[in-house]
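note to self: dont lose this again. the chain is below, predicted strucutre after it. 332 aa total, dont forget to put it in the shared folder this time
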Amino acid sequence: MSKIKGKRVLVTGAHGFIGSYLIEALVNEGAKVTTFDLYRSWESWSPLKDARGIEKKYETLFGDVRDPYLCLNLVENKEIIFHLAALMSVPYSYVAPRSFFETNILGTVNLLEAARRSNNLERFVLTSTSETYGSAIYSPMDENHPIQAQSPYAASKAGADRAAMSYYLSFGTPVTILRPFNNFGPRQSAKAIIPTIISQLLSDKVKKVKLGSLSPMRDYTYAADTAEAFIEVATSQKTIGEILNSGAGKGVSIKEVYDLACDIIGVKKEVITDETRIRPQKSEVWKLVCDNKKIKKLVGWSPKTTFKKGLEKTISWIKENQEYYRPEIYNI
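---
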């Protein structure tokens, strides 16, 4: 029997990439799910719309986590909160840093404050990011690696982490912080590097692939595996008050991603450097590789999907859904 079946669950940021996989997993395991996402006056494409077979099996609410009064209503009677809502783009955080601090830190505090006043709450799972570590001082990175936020985005997420842990230490709020390394899979937008590469390789209109630096190395986890990590840490008493990495434990450079995607698709195009895609030198994080020993020890989680198999699934999905991607607008 599922450990989360019948639980009253709130997922913020549900219409994001990882959120869509988490909703799928929660619904399939029998949780009573309420999804929450940013209110918009127009309807836009969401990865959750392409999560098949779970339509009408969850409640949908819209608003803004920056509203503390709304947050009080959101958490009422909820047993588990998965907080994924955040502004996420590193490049955009250079342009509009204040909005990242308002949403990612103050929005988290609003939910934490509401959560600590709840009589029903069993767990508050905060979504962190490996970007808070900055470039590796040692590798692989465990949870004791120093925090070095090298972008406003990373700083805002590090601030949210500190806020959540302060609520655990000060008020006994049952907080768990999950720190995923990079994720990928079907339904991911072209803001991420893997769909950027695949969509350009698949497009007949793109003759040369535009990328930034090919050197940065990341640890990629298939998103469905990350969704399982969320559920495992949320339902274990061993993880209260803990920070846990989730990742595969293997680094892959952007060049290696590109070469493998070319092999799978069966096409090779010239790569040219797009200077607009290169981060400032001191802001670039060159290597992020996960040490996942802690999450393995506490809850027995490790990813099930190999990078190649996940990449094959992602390529197949993007090939069938190229209308979501228009790489020719940004390429020559």
